[in-house]
Task: inverse folding
């Protein structure tokens, strides 16, 4: 068993139009000089922070792969920029591409043996766009409950909403019409949606998810500006986002996965499977958006599938 080594740090990150010094916080499990490609993990939200993905730290223990977590700019332990709240021109994909480039460059990950990238939810959206640029050093890509476009994501959300009880659908519709999201009926409907589709762990929420919920509630700058006022109402800077035209440019072997009940609906996975040249797609029965935090053996299965994918010597196209 590999010894657990943990290192924390901050990478200076220069942002145009921001005068103050900014930085990206990172946390490494394992030894970057081990000889195996580290796994860079990009979190979702946007604005959720890295802690809810610490399940993947076990890739070091079980497979000898160092794991690099980081908090994206605007949230958690990285620089917050609350003065930019509502500025959709500022909070764009390119900012996060630049940040990821900066982190990879700072850690020297372009050099042999290179690195893998695992992106969950919004992190997978970012990861697919990043990989489409064919960055130096990238070896393999994992898109965990990601989305190929916001349009398809919205269609998927609508399909899930249509399955909810009529009174809950009505509460959601009324909240959106009035722009009021604090009613008990709306909160009850949202809680139902979270427990069925976002994280199916029992009890809910699991302890690992609490830091993300805390980050999102304490500073809504990134989430509100990029996504919208609630998980079910999207009017932010990502509203017209798509990576679909760029997917054929992803040349590294790619693993796509989602859950049976995932908010990242199957229809938002299809372009990944159809357009990425070397791709596998797995849908985990019984899983939600946070498969890696869920019980019934799901957490263990996710780790095994991801670990084996990242350490296989040969990757075959198994469409």
Result:
């Amino acid at each position: 068993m590999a010894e657990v080594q943990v290192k924390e740090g901050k990478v200076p990150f220069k942002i145009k139009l921001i005068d103050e010094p900014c930085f990206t916080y990172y946390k490494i499990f394992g030894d970057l000089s081990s000889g195996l490609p580290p796994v860079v993990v990009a979190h979702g939200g946007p604005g959720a922070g890295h802690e809810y993905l610490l399940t993947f730290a076990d890739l070091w223990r079980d497979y000898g792969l160092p794991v690099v977590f980081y908090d994206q700019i605007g949230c958690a332990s990285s620089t917050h920029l609350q003065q930019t709240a509502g500025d959709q021109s500022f909070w764009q994909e390119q900012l996060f591409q630049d940040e990821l480039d900066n982190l990879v460059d700072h850690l020297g990950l372009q050099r042999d043996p290179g690195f893998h990238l695992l992106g969950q939810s919004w992190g997978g959206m970012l990861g697919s766009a990043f990989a489409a640029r064919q960055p130096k050093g990238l070896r393999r890509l994992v898109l965990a409950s990601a989305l190929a476009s916001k349009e398809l994501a919205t269609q998927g959300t609508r399909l899930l909403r249509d399955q909810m009880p009529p009174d809950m659908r009505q509460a959601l519709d009324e909240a959106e019409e009035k722009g009021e999201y604090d009613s008990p009926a709306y909160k009850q409907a949202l809680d139902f949606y979270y427990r069925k589709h976002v994280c199916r762990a029992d009890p809910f929420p699991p302890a690992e998810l609490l830091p993300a919920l805390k980050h999102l509630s304490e500073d809504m700058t990134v989430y509100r500006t990029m996504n919208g006022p609630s998980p079910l109402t999207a009017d932010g800077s990502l509203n017209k986002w798509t990576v679909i035209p760029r997917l054929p440019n992803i040349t590294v072997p790619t693993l796509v996965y989602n859950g049976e009940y995932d908010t990242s609906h199957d229809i938002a996975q299809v372009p990944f499977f159809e357009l990425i040249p070397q791709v596998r797609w797995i849908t985990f029965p019984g899983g939600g958006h946070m498969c890696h935090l869920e019980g019934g053996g799901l957490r263990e299965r996710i780790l095994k599938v991801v670990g084996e994918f990242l350490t296989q010597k040969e990757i075959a196209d198994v469409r």
Summary: The longest strand covers residues 6-12. The first helix runs from residue 58 to 63.
